[in-house]
Structure formats: structure tokens, C-alpha cells
Amino acid sequence: MRTHLIRGVLALAVLFVMAGPAAAQSVIRGRVVDQAGKPLEGAVVSIEATESNRRAEVKTNRNGEFMQIGLPSGRYNVTATKDNLKQAQPATISQGTPVELNFQLSPQSGLTPEQIKQNQETQALAQSAIDAMREGRDEEAIKLFNELVVKVPTCSDCYYNLGVAYSKRQEYAQAEASFLKATELAPNSADAYTGLANVYNAQKKFDQAQQVSAKAAELSGGAGGGGSAEALYNQGVILWNAGKFAEAKVQFEAAIKTDPKMAMAHYQLGMANLNLGQIPEARKAFEGYLAAEPNGAKAAEVQTFLKQLPQ
Predict the structure, then answer these.
(1) CATH number of 108-186: 3.40.50.2300, 1.25.40.10, 3.30.450.20, 3.40.190.290?
(2) How far is 233 from 95, CA to CA, in rounded Å?
(3) Averaged pLDDT, 30-35
(4) pLDDT digits over 55-103, tens only?
(5) What totals of helices (H) and strands (E) does the chain contain, helices first?
(6) CATH number belonging to domain 209-311
(7) Most buried among 86, 118, 238, 265, by the most CB within 10 A?
């Protein structure tokens, strides 16, 4: 169970993947009430992505309700503010899965002065850790997050962020231990399993990478199974790096079926088809890349392939 005090600032996610999948869109909605449970009209709800500078802001209606649509998949910090009251919560947006967050704004009247001081110190430490990570000061971030897990041993987000920071420094043993602890504390965290898969993939432990990547896909797919486009794509990348082109092709096709606009899935499908000697299928996949992202990073390379491949 995450500690409520700092959960609002411990949602930083810097996904350490082989290539970036296209963003999907979804919805955040919810309600803001006061200490007595009455709706708060005009409360400001700010929604900030932890992986980019993307930010959105909405106000609650007379019923205290808010809704923001058109958000790409990813991890966010959502903060509700009214007058001098504020509450923050993390949110993970997935394709086609609305997220509902409810806020109750109230002063810390039930806490002793010592508890308030401890809370403020922990909150400040958490914010410093995230600021260091955002600014690329990974060594400092690692130090601060390690201090946080001493104070809050059940903080799964702290361990996740440690895994990310260690991965960036290629300190894979520490990254693995951190992600494993995050999965222990938050067994349904697809992000933690994805981070673990990337650690194994970077070390060419492809069988282990495939196993935990499948778990990430299962979790991100929810009760219906199948997995998100991002998770399916990541599975394909792992299989591709292991030289399992036919199996990778299946995953890239599944990712495209889930999100037809995922340009990199089209590109990797084209490359898999090339390695399998399936030229017509490769042409079709590369054309799909250009349709999804005509000016993308791989556009010039894809255009060269299309000129060279037989009709």
C-alpha cells in the first residue's frame, strides 16, 4: 500500500525502452469535494505528464466534477486546488481505459505539529528526488530515493524510480533489485515489469525479458487480456533482439491491430518481414509507417527501402 502523504509526487516515469511507441489517448475524470463531502465548484485540476512538458488544466463544475480528454498514454501527476487547499494523486493513463480520481480537500487539522513537520520534510525530500531525476542528476536522485525508502519502506514508486535511475546508469544489478521490489509492493504494476524486462533485454537475457514483458502485457491489458499496444510492441522488440523474427512479427502485428497509428510497430514489422524474406509484406508495413508518420525519424530510411524493394 502506498503512503498517501507522498503518492502525489512519486509518479515519475522515464521509460527505458529500446524505442518509443506512439502515444494513445484516453480520459481522466472525477470529482472534488470539501471536508464535509460537498462538491467544490471552480476547483482547479492540473494534469502534468511526468515524462514530458505536457500539461492540461480544467475546472470543476457546480457538481464538483471535472473531465479532460485527449490525453496520451503515460504517467501523470494530478493536483486539485481550491483556495489554499490542495491534494495530489498519481495517475497512469492507458489506451481506452478512463481513469477516475476523486479528491477531498481539507486542512491537516487532525495531525499534531510534529506529524505535520515530518510530513512536510518527507514531501520536500520526495520533490527533491523527482526534481533531480527530471534534470538528469541521476546519482543525486538515487541517493534521495534511497533515503525515501528508509522513511517509507512501502513506497513502490520510489523503488520504480530507483530502477529507472539505475538503468540509465547501466547499473543493472541494482536496477533489477529495485524493479523486483517495486513488483513485490505493487504486483499489478505493468510499468515495473516493463522496466524489469528492459533490464534483462539490455543484458541479452532474452528469455527472462520475454517472460516479464509478457507479464507486463497481461497487466496492461486488464481483465480482457491481450495487452496494450505499448506492451505488445515491447515484447516484439525483445523477441527481435533475440533473433526470433517470426515471433517478433506476431507481436508487432498485434500492436498494430491495437493501435494502427503506432508508426514504430509498422517499421519493426517491415524489418521483421525483410529478415523473413517476405518482401510484399515488408513493403506493406513500410507504407504503413509512412501513412502513420510521414515525417518520422525513420521516414527517409523507409523511403529508401521502398525504392529498392521489388514491386
Answers:
(1) 1.25.40.10
(2) 14
(3) 89
(4) 899 999 999 999 988 888 888 889 999 887 888 888 888 766 788 899 8
(5) 11, 7
(6) 1.25.40.10
(7) 265
